[in-house]
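Continuing from the previous page...

OK, I double-checked the sequence for non-specific serine/threonine protein kinase against my notes and this is the correct one:
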Amino acid sequence: MPIITAVASALDYSHHRGLLHRDVKPANILLAEPDGQAPRVFLADFGIARPIEDATRLTATDMMVGTAAYAAPEQLKGASVDGCADQYALACTAFQLLTGMPPYAGSNSAVVITKHLSAPSPSIGAYHPLLAGLDPVFAKALAKDPSHRFSSCGEFAEHLGRQLGPGLSSAVAIPFPDTQPEIDVTAPARTAPARPTGRAVRRHPGFLIGAVASIVLLVAGGIFAIVKLTRHHQTAGAPHSASTPTNPAPAAANTGPFTGVYRVQFGPVTKLAEAPAPGAMQSTDTYAIRSMCGSAGCVATATRLSGEVRLAPSTVFDEVGGRWVAVTIGSAKCRDSASRMWEVFTLQPGPNGTFTGEYRGAASNSCAEKRTVTFTRTGDVDVNSLPDPAALPARVVSPAEALHGRYHITRNFSTTMPQQQQDETVTTDCLRSGDQCMSYFYSPTSDTPLVFSDGNWILDLEHEENVPGCISLYVKTTGQYPLPQPMQDPITRLTGHGRHQQSGSCAVSVDFDETLTRTGD
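Thanks. Re-ran it with the corrected sequence; updated structure tokens here:
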């Protein structure tokens, strides 16, 4: 929050002086901590800045200004813009700082621009359940109509900080990555999936730690302005380091069945249809976990502290049927494009305070991986540093969870193309809110991911393909599968309708009907 608050203050400062930035994004926010001085935040690259009354003009080469992933709808359309456009970009930047990816991500700029212009504001709570309270704030700051946004960047930052709160802010603080973890799978649905590679991991300095004491705006040709910022609870002349209390409060007891600091060891990566790979654990992370049990069951909040596997910074575990289950949406690369990654832990309690089980990662563009995982308790945790699990709403069971087991899939095309048939196993994982699920169908030779929301499963695959005899082949397959009525568990038959498109020398565009018939557990 200190970074967003500081940048918001700087933008308001420039707006009051008639200047728009027009390209606010994470890459233009620089941090420095000179020896013996307070930390500073630099808002750089005013190279495309213009006076507000001249802000609708394009660049000298008549190119759209700003970066598509962070640009406001009115800016993308070349309409009149004001400080609300910078506020929109700041909201996109804040969204990425908290989730690891911008609100509208994709490798195709045209698709990203279309989402900015017409798609609803995404839910940050879908990425991290603990951040669901921020959804109304982002919905307002990312409104398509500038008049529906906050009156200033500072007001946006104020509402964001108020909803985030100091305890939650520290729990979700994550390093600012210059690369995303990567899962590299090249096979589409109905074709043999390649083995995913390991995640690309780098160590990065933490960016969301510490108080921001000043902010500097950099402009081509020199410094535009310096705005001093201080934390409200500090007094003039106060030392930079916090003093040690004379009588520190005793640490809260580590109660609950899944509480403490845990070393998390991940096994080698395998495909979903394969048995766990033999060999030693390959990667290690550290998690802080706080749990409690009540009349509705047991729940635990968890924060990733460090390690090599860059998963979501926070998650929530629920005890379901004797297992601890956590489902979170993080971010990773799938087919060289930033994607929402469904991250799932399924753990069984073991001896000596250990929990063993499985981690699965899956994206809607047919990328997936599986690892064995072991949680080993290494010590106590400061439970007051973690969100209170007792304050969380109860887990909601989604009707999509009835889609499980083995299915025979039949796809009939509207032309004379031959019928396709395939046998696959499906695993359905749902957010604890119950409103979104990933139903991932897989076999040794194929993958079919379906994302459930608003009573429908959605198929949405889009990728390049290498097929002998086809040049510049690009494949897009979409489909919709309504939830069967009346409800049943397990779902014995699921039907849907879709469209398959190919471009290049093997171009085709054809509708299809698909039936998925359950054949067993």
